[in-house]
Every structure is written in structure tokens, then in C-alpha cells.
Amino acid sequence: MKYAYYPGCSLEASAGEYEHSVRASLAAFNYDVEDLEGWTCCGASSGHSFDHTLAMALPARVLALAEEIGRDVIVPCATCFNRLCVARYEILHDPDAKADIEAVVGRPVNGSVQILSPVTLVDRALADQGVDWQPPKPLSGLKVAAYYGCLLVRPPEATNFDHPEQPQSLQRIMRRLGAEPVKWSHGIDCCGGSTSLVTREAVQSMVGKIVAAARASGAEALVTACPLCQVNLEMRQTVKPEMPCIYFSELVGVAMQLPGTDAWLRQHLIDPRPLLRSLALTA
Amino acid sequence: MSEHSLAAVNLRGGPSTEIWPDLARMVTRASGQPVLRCYQCHKCSSGCPAAEFMDFPPSQIVRLVTYGLADQMLSCKAIWACTGCMTCGLRCPNGIEVGAINDVFKSWILSGKLPQQVGDKLGTDQAKAGNRRAALFHKLFLMTLKQFGRMHELALMGGYKVASGDLLSDIPVGVKMLFKGKLPLLPTSGPYRREVAAMFQRAPLVTRRRLKPARRLSELNQRRQGR
Fold first, then answer.
1. The pLDDT of residue B139
2. Fold matches, A2-116 and A131-278
3. CB within 8 Å of chain B, chain A residues 60-99
4. Which of B180, B183, B206 has the CB atom closest to A104's CB atom?
5. Would you call B90 and A38 a contact, using CB atoms and an 8 Å cutoff?
6. CATH node for A2-116
7. Chain A, 124-163: which have a CB under 8 Å from a chain B CB?
8. What percent of chain B has pLDDT over 70?
9. What's the pLDDT tens digit per position in A177-235?
10. Where are the domains of chain A?
11. HEC states along A161-187?
12. Which CATH code is given to the segment(s) A131-278?
């Protein structure tokens, strides 16, 4: 089965390492993906602050493109994932809204395709591997805090992602790859990513709490699937030593020894390579 | 929490004592949130990660709306401090997402089109006063998006830094991001940008038309029953 791939704007720029590592991870698990032709921005957090119909129509256009080729769409960016899911939910549950959205988009949208996060796909692929499967390079000794943030899990009726308060898929992936996910309290707390530029002090305090909680639980790194969180968590840390925030797909790359891993890890604002090297996970 | 107590809604002093009785109904229609169901359990305020930076925490935002205090809503800091994390909506026993209520007020201010009854009492400039930066960020985001059809992070961040006058604070991290290849200099764009620009033209018209005929509360409640 072939999937449509909707990267989103962040993955073209500030989340280049996520883009490349997600593509490599999906390929490593034999997912057949093809870029969605002519995709546009989902409107993210500013769209819904400006106009509700526009905030629904922008992601609905992406859905319409996927429906035209009849493929389920893979959305790595948590913000895009959320906007697409919310738009699909509104289209499926509110006929008036559906008509309005179609009028604005100028294309029919039925919400007939599935929206998938690569977290779900990698989780499923690993579950299919059999109990004695091991990656070529198990991440032994790496203690990570699985950080989901807001947008994958909320609102649960629209995103249908794992459990809204106690999601487990990232932990399952990490355990399968040989890493040790810690038990901690801040996995679905907000890092303030959407207001990072505007209210810096507030965001620094929110990030500080998350990093402190991860450290108190014994984690040496945060693992995430959201490009907004990843940049924000690395950019707004004020306490030394700093804790790297690694995309789950990058760790898939390390454990599966995929080519290009070093180039992804090099792009971080807080370099995770010393940590991985100290555990003899990378050269 | 003492400064956040209900006394903060000073009915006899403060910026205005004007009450707009239809505000709750209007916000219910615009946000899709069953505002009048709130019984002030404060679960939203307890779980809100940004509550400590707000003048009115989420539960009081709902209260302001039900009391019809439009002026306080339009001039408060809280709607801009909201990160839109939706924790309030997840935990509310009545299915109210306060972030969506904040979005309604933000959209009134950003579009400069306050509903007439509210707008008569308060100029948009006054509403924007304390919150220029957040409003500026959203405006720049949407301008960039309308221009290219996709986001160009360098244009957004650079534009925001210059226009807000907060130029120096993030230079080290910005330079680091440029060198790490995280901020490509050129935007990507294509013929699809015209389609997006057209959507920007059509959407506000549809929104306004939608809000005119009063949608029945029962209809909204039905929609929320998925929870």
C-alpha cells in the first residue's frame, strides 16, 4: 500500500533532521511513500487565531489533495497532524462546516482518508517484528524521557492518537530499540512552542520545568516527534548542563544503523552526539 | 492565586463596567464551545501551563464571557498568553475548550472587525495595546503564508524581530540556526500560492455569513457529544 507524504513547512527548514530521519525510518520498515504534489501550509497556530473557517480550510486543502489520489497521508509534523485531524473531524461531524470549507477551498473534501503519524507506523512495524527481534545496534544504556507535547494527543476525539493522558507508543518504540524510557510526569505538558518568539520568559520557564522533570527521573535526553517542541526545547533551555532533545526517528536511525545518521544529529542546537558517543552508540 | 480571585473582575471600577448580555451566546456560536455549561470547577486553570502568566486564568475567562464583560476580554493579556495546548479542553467535564474562546477574541482583534455591538464600546487600538507583539507575530505568519503558500521561517523570524523592536535578544540562537542549515534563505513556493491567497479572500466572508443566523445551542451540544 502506497502512502502520501505531507512534510509541512518546518520539515523543509528548521526540522531538516526530522525530515531526513523520518523518510529513512519509513523506508527501513518498507513503507512505500510518495510526496503529496502541490502541498501548502496547514496554517498552524496562527491560522486559528485569525479566522476559524480559514484555519479549517488550509488543512482541508491538503486533505483534498490526498483524497484526489486516494491515499492515506503520513504527517510527521505534530502541528500539521493536529490541524489536519481537527479539520477532518469537523468535516465528518458538521455538514454546514463541510459546505463552508469546500466553498473556501474550492475542492470537494470528504475526510475519507486516514491521517497517520510516523510514530504510529514505526510502532506498528516494530510490533510486527516478533518478540526476539533486535536492532543491529541496540541503544543499551540510553535513558530517555518520551515527550509527546500537546498536538499529537489533543483533542483526543479528533487525533485518535494513543491514550490522551498516558500515551505509550514512543516508550514502546524506545524499549524495542533497546533504550530505557524513564517514568516521568511531563510527557504531555506544553512546552510553549507556539509562543516561543513572543513570550520568551514564560516559555523559558515552561521548558525549564519539563527538562528538570526529565532530569529528576534519570533521563539523559528527551525524545519527541514534534518539530516545534524539538526546536523550542533546545532553544529555550537556560540551565546547564543542557539536555538534548532527539527525534524518535533519529534514534531509529542510530539503532538500525541507517546511513546519514551523523549528519542529522549534527544539526541540533544542543549536540546529542557526545551523549551517544559516551554510550558507544555512534562512532 | 489571590490576585486571580473573582474580585479581579471589578464591576464597580476597572476599565469598564459595561455589560454586553449577548456576549456568551455570540462566543458560543463563534467558538463552538458550550460556554454556558461551565460550573467553575477550575480544572482548566489547575492544568493550564500558562496560567501563571495570565491576568485571568482559563476558568475566569469563561466567567468573563458569561458575565458579558467584553472590554475585559478584549484588553486582557490572557488570550495572548494562551499557547493553544488544549489541556483545558481535554480535562473540562463539560467539553469547553477555553483556547477556542481565546481564538474568537484574537480573531476579532487581528481582523480589526469586532462585532458591531462590542466594537462600538472599544477601539481596536485599545484592545491591541498590551498585546502588540503576539498580534504582530500572527499577522506576520499569515502574511508570509498568503505570500508564498508555505511558511518561510527566516522571513517570519526576521520580520518579527525587526518589526517588534526586540532585535537583539535571540541573535546567538538565530545565527546558530542559520549555520546549522535550519533556516534556508529562500522560500519555497509554486503556483499553489495563488490558490492559498484566494482562500484568504474567501474565508472571512464565509465566517461572517456563518455567524449571522443564530445556530441553535442544541445543535452545538449535539456536535460535542462525541466526547
1. 87
2. no
3. 61, 93-94, 96
4. B206
5. no
6. 1.20.1050.140
7. 150, 154-157
8. 76
9. 999 999 999 999 999 988 888 888 899 999 999 999 999 999 999 999 999 999 999 99
10. 2-116, 131-278
11. CCCCCCCCHHHHHHHHCCCEECCCCCC
12. 3.40.50.11810
